[in-house]
């Protein structure tokens, strides 16, 4: 087999293609901070599921930095608190709450909804970051519900 080889011209073309900005002025390499620069979310309440790591944590961080009251809905409260402390260290004036939510458990979802409603907060933004696993599907079936994951 011939090993992969790219010419300098091909590398320049690929570099141009992937660094090119679209009609919005952003590219695939744009950061959440760049995309939301100048945006204010003051007065808005956001629930972010899966906020203890990955894209959920980054979403919570940026929403908090833009002034939203962020409710981090997490399965693991200890991991969630680590992220919460990091968000508060970066944005000391941020308003960030931590609530337990396991989306694979209907009982947990119901408890979360009741606890959130009891706080009397509006819900302006919902970011649903969902990690799907077979054990999650089996658990939902045991609770008598049907989960239809999307690709």
UniProtKB/TrEMBL annotation:
<dbReference type="Pfam" id="PF00106">
    <property type="entry name" value="adh_short"/>
</dbReference>
<dbReference type="InterPro" id="IPR055280">
    <property type="entry name" value="TIC32"/>
</dbReference>
<dbReference type="InterPro" id="IPR002347">
    <property type="entry name" value="SDR_fam"/>
</dbReference>
<protein>
    <submittedName>
        <fullName>Uncharacterized protein</fullName>
    </submittedName>
</protein>
<dbReference type="InterPro" id="IPR036291">
    <property type="entry name" value="NAD(P)-bd_dom_sf"/>
</dbReference>
């Amino acid at each position: 087999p011939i090993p992969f080889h790219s010419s300098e011209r091909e590398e320049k073309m690929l570099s141009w293609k992937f660094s090119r900005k679209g009609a919005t002025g952003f590219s695939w390499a744009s950061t959440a901070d760049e995309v939301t620069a100048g945006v204010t979310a003051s007065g808005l309440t956001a629930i972010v599921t899966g906020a203890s790591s990955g894209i959920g944590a980054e979403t919570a961080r940026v929403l908090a930095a833009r002034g939203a009251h962020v409710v981090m809905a997490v399965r693991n409260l200890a991991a969630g608190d680590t992220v919460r402390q990091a968000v508060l260290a970066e944005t000391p004036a941020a308003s960030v709450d931590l609530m337990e939510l396991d989306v694979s458990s209907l009982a947990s979802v119901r408890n979360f909804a009741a606890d959130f409603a009891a706080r009397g907060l509006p819900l302006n933004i919902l970011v649903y970051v969902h990690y799907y696993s077979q054990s999650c599907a089996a658990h939902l079936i045991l609770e008598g519900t049907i989960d239809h994951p999307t690709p």
